[in-house]
Every structure is written in C-alpha cells, then in structure tokens.
Amino acid sequence: MKRSLIEFAKVAVTFGAFACLGIALTHATWGVSSIWPANGLIVGLFFNGRKTRWRTLTIAVAAGALVANLLFLRDRPAVPLFTFGNVVEVLALWVSLSASRAPVSAVVSPRSLFRFLLCAVLFPATVSALAVGVVAHLTRGWPLLFVSRSWLFSDALGLALFLPLGHAVRGAQRLLNIGLSRRRFGTHFSRASVHGVLAHAIVLLVSVATFHRGHWIPPYWVLPSVILAVLWAGSYAAVTGTCIASAVAVISTVSQPFSSPLGAFATPEKAILEVQGFTLACMLASYLMASVLADRRRYLAQATAGHRTQLELARKLREANAELEALALQDPLTRLPNRRRFESAFADGSFTTNADRGEVAVMFIDVDWFKRFNDRYGHAFGDGALRAVANVIGERLPDGAIAARIGGEEFAVLMPDASAAVAEGLAESIVQRVRLLSIAHADSPYEHVTVSVGLMLSKRGVAVDRASLLDAADAAMYRAKSEGRNRWVRLDRDGATHVPAIGQGTCQSV
C-alpha cells in the first residue's frame, strides 16, 4: 500500500509539473497550444510493458492535471474540461498499447515506426480531441472543429515527441545503473556523451541561425543537422534533436509572430500551425532515418552473430573431423594405428630407399594359440592380453617406425631406414618381453602367452616392392610358427631363412 501511494504521488507530481510547463507554453503562444508534452512524457517515463500500472497512472494523471489547471488556467470553467481530456487520452493510450502492443520507442524499425504513429499517437490523440471537442461544444458552445483540430495537432506532436523521449530517459537511467558497476563503462559513456553533446550543439546552432531575426540560413538546413545528429549520436537524437529545433522555432515565432523565417502570417494561430508543420516534417524525416539505421544496425548485429556462430561451428566441425579421422586410423582396443593407417604409411613414397639410405624393414607379429586362449579365458581376458602385447610392441620402436594392429591377434611394424641389426634386435626384444609378461596360457606348451615374429628387409639402394616385402614378412611369420612359435624368423634377400635360438638375439642360418 505504501509503495502504491509513493508511486501515485510520484506520477501525480511529475505530471503536474509537465502540465504546468504545457500551460505556460500555451500562454506564451497567445492561448494557442503548440505542443502538449505532459501526457507523452508521463506515459514514456512510467510505461513498463504488461507490468504498467495503468489504473494508478490514470488516477494520478487526473489528480495532477486538476491541480495544474486550477493553479495556472485562467478560465476556471474549463478546468474540468481539460482535465477530462487528459484522462481520456491516457485511457486511450492504455487501450491502444495494451491491445496492439505497439512500441513506445519510435525508432526501432520502419514497421515499428508505422505502428507507433498509428497506435500510440494518432489513435489516442484523435479520441481525446473528439471527446474534448464534443464536450466543449455542448457545455461551452466552442466551435467543435477548431477545438478538436487544435487539441489533435498539439497532443499528437506531444505524444510523438515526448513519449519516445520519456521512454529513452527511463532506459538510459536503467542502463546507467547497470553500467556503473562495470569496468570501462565510464570511458564508453563519456565518449558517447561527448558525441551526443556535439551533435545536439550543431542542431541548436543551426536552429538559432535559422530562426534568428537576421535569418542567417534557410529553414530547410535544420533537417540535415538533425539527421547528422542521428548519424553521429544515435537513434535517440531523432527525438531530442527535433525537440531542440521545435523549441527554437516556437520561441522565435512567439517573439516575432508576423515575420518568422517560416513566412509572414496574418494571425498567431496560423503561425503556430506553421511551426507545428515544421516540427512534423523534422520529426517524420528524422524518425524514418533513425528507424532505418536502427533496423540496419540490428540486421548487422544479427549477421555478425550468425557469422561468429558459423565460424564457431566450422571450428568444431574441423575438430570433429580431425577426431574422426584419428579414430578412423586408430584401433579402438589397443590404441595402436589400424590396418588402414599401416597401409597408407607403407604406400607413402618417402619409404622408398636409395643408395645413401638404409633398408626398409617389415615385421609381422602373431599371438600364439590365441583362439585357444579366448576359448578358455573369455574375450575380456583376451582383450586384456592383446592390449598388453600391443604395449610391448609400441614401447621401444625406433624413430620413424609405425606399429599397427592389422587383424584380430596380428600386428605389424614398419621401420624405414632400419639396419638389419636394429630390426633383429627389436624382433628379439618383442619376443622376450612378451614372454616376460607371464600371462598364463594353459593351452600353450610354454604355459604363457607368446608371439611369433616374421621379419623381412628390403635390399639397400633398390626401390621397395611393397607387395613382395609384405608377402615375405608374412611367410617369415608362418615359418616361425612352423618352427615351434615363441620366436622370430628373418627371411634373407636370397630366400634363405634365419631362425634364432629361443631366448637369444643372434641369427642362425638354416
């Protein structure tokens, strides 16, 4: 309850102050209302979308208008009439904004500008003008058309100018409260403030030069200055720049009603009408420019965000493709390269030899009696044995060598630029270290998991015949199996077979 009373008092006092300003302006323009700011400002300041407390707003407007009219209106019988007109206009705004959800900011987009002018300006101003004109004609005998036209023009301009202005002030206050706690906000705010001050100073100087008694420049130069302010300071300058230009025009016309830069007029009413037309022209042109620019900025922001999203998606896609490619070339069980990776490496031209390079060695490795191991211990233990064997094979590879799993229990090693001693040493090391794993294998005569290794080296200085080299290494592996397994065999260049003694690292010719 206390909060509602505070809000009511705030709205009533604020509207009363704006209404007093409007009445003083009407007195200055010989009783002809040029622009009525109170209704637009109060709704713009306190409009909060669906959360707007329209009931409180309407009652507070009625109270504020009544007090202001009683204090400053010379025609006492007209006090209820003009108070009634303000209340009707706020009620019409309530109905229009609630039903159409039209924006109270005129510079969002061209489509929003049209909805704003239709629903937030023309409809409430027309309804209140007709209501005031009819009541004034019935109760006071005033001309219906004259009263309605005067009310319509002044209130429509007031809503069009001051409704977005009040909304902009409310938004600026909210952004200021949020931004004060952020770093670098002060620098950005000060830069924007400098641009805003300079832009509005240009509008003020051009307007004063236009409406000065000397008529230094033509009136049509005011419009480019307002548009320049929009381009420099932002969309809100369409509202504030038009307000500055119209204020200077009103003051100039009041001081010299029959020799205004806008022309020579027979009556003050026609001079005010011309000022209203000038204000309308500035407002429509600047609003349209600001709405187009705001729409363009929003489109560019969306396009930039979309481009950044596409770049991020492209980066993630490249990472995913790289990961998939790595997975496609890797055996998922042992984490060694797979057959595809082995074959692509073997097909690489860099593995050919010449006179000043070593030999290319190929080693085929097969786990002995592995099917029996799987049948007795299960596939889970079989997978563990394969991983252990793969770790042994991949641990001590020479530089540039590739170890791969090419089948179920079959592995292969490719060693470019390898000497016979290095290749034989690696074969002997693999056989011994697998045996030292001591993985129990009850169906093996050695009682542990062992491997058979076939080794083949290319001839020095001769291009590698890949197919022959692979076939020879495979034949050497099967020779090791036929010799009793748990050993390695190297097939010589002339077809001779070298079989080392079990547990020793030297070759013996057979």
TrEMBL record:
Keywords: Membrane, Transmembrane, Transmembrane helix
GO molecular function: diguanylate cyclase activity
Transmembrane segments: 52-72, 79-100, 112-138, 150-169, 189-209, 221-251, 271-290
Domain of life: Bacteria
Enzyme Commission number, as recorded: 2.7.7.65
EC primary class: transferase
Keyword Glycosyltransferase tagged: no
An example Gene Ontology CC term for this record: plasma membrane
NCBIfam families for this protein: GGDEF (TIGR00254)
Name used for this protein in its record: diguanylate cyclase
Protein source organism: Trinickia dinghuensis
